[in-house]
Amino acid sequence: MPIVTVQVTREGSAPGRNSVTAEEKAAIIKGVSEVLLNVLNKPLESTYVVIEEVDLDNWGWGGLPTAQYRQQRAAETKS
Amino acid sequence: MPIVTVQVTREGSAPGRNSVTAEEKAAIIKGVSEVLLNVLNKPLESTYVVIEEVDLDNWGWGGLPTAQYRQQRAAETKS
Amino acid sequence: MPIVTVQVTREGSAPGRNSVTAEEKAAIIKGVSEVLLNVLNKPLESTYVVIEEVDLDNWGWGGLPTAQYRQQRAAETKS
Amino acid sequence: MPIVTVQVTREGSAPGRNSVTAEEKAAIIKGVSEVLLNVLNKPLESTYVVIEEVDLDNWGWGGLPTAQYRQQRAAETKS
Amino acid sequence: MPIVTVQVTREGSAPGRNSVTAEEKAAIIKGVSEVLLNVLNKPLESTYVVIEEVDLDNWGWGGLPTAQYRQQRAAETKS
Amino acid sequence: MPIVTVQVTREGSAPGRNSVTAEEKAAIIKGVSEVLLNVLNKPLESTYVVIEEVDLDNWGWGGLPTAQYRQQRAAETKS
């Protein structure tokens, strides 16, 4: 009876989207549940998956809010 | 100093409601805090309770988003 | 299908014990599961409970490891 | 590669605010990431920080929702 | 930069094992990281996976410690 | 009343150590509690800190267990 918690930033995976779509969530749920089935033989119905979308402001990386960290990395890559 | 985290789907417990009510949240907080008091003798004021409401789309069960899994189970029960 | 996570310090509830007993764990599981049943009408079999025991060194309170914080509070109470 | 999760109540730190500001979030991210750098020598870019803001109704303390517990404590202090 | 937390009971997936093997852990890490890559286009190097093994006594289901709940379900199925 | 959870790999910060020391844990607890005090004005005594040490096998990065991912990165850097 695994519990899988997936934390991702709340943003779109393509231009014009600003969040994870319901189809993408369903694909994540299916995918990680099948990993537990295939690797540990856990029946699908015993696995709970919880997806937590985190606002970009609330996710830090490199000591900065994510948006700023990405800008910094992009700037470094260019130079 | 226990920390109790309660994750539930964001939905009503009765027709016409679409979320957990403030009264229900207060009852959950009281109930689980008293369990820790009664079983482990933890003073109420040392227990933190955090309730996390999770959108139905973000909760997976049986490899599916919860709403679809419930439909599938209901269909199986009927047949 | 709630998930309840209970974090407590790894210590005994009575002299001569140094951890939570199996009976206490069972009582916590029973107690919190019944809270969800009574308040939100969640069937017992849909609730997962995970108990996490945390070493005293790994739990901080008042800016200090818990054992030191308790000593400090006990000293303050006496004086 | 530490992960630091910071859970706080969703409320302002000064009159007229009702949530944590973007500047405060950035300061939390910077501060806790630097703690991990200074104490454990973890590079900033390997630390993830996730800030979770929790509604006051969803945070329990002393067996009560936080707002009620604060009122009770304030009343006790006065008397 | 997703974080995936996988909580499973600490037990073997085959007779004679009493925990998840290093190979199984590696397969879980690979599998769930690839789900995030395939569904949300998250680079593998930006995904952290944390596996938490939970003692059977510390995992509750059906209001009981897991081992007891499984016995109860097995008994019900037979009768 | 913040809760700060710090997850780190269980390994030493210097040769000859294989875990985080008690002094380092105390410094982490002090440091992150002071961040919450300084940034959000949260009293030290209202902050709980929980440190979770995660075995290297149980932490994945880049789709691999951490030890393997580090070897791969080191090899890439050399070449």
From TrEMBL, chains A, B, C, D, E, F:
Domain of life the protein comes from: Bacteria
SUPFAM superfamilies: Tautomerase/MIF
One Pfam family matching this protein: Tautomerase
Keywords for this protein: Isomerase, Plasmid
InterPro entries: 4-OT-like_dom, Tautomerase/MIF_sf
Domain 4-oxalocrotonate tautomerase-like per the UniProt entry, residue ranges: 2-65
Alphabetical list of PANTHER family matching this protein: 2-HYDROXYMUCONATE TAUTOMERASE, TAUTOMERASE-RELATED
Protein family: Belongs to the 4-oxalocrotonate tautomerase family.
Name this polypeptide is given: 4-oxalocrotonate tautomerase family protein
Protein's organism: Sinorhizobium chiapasense
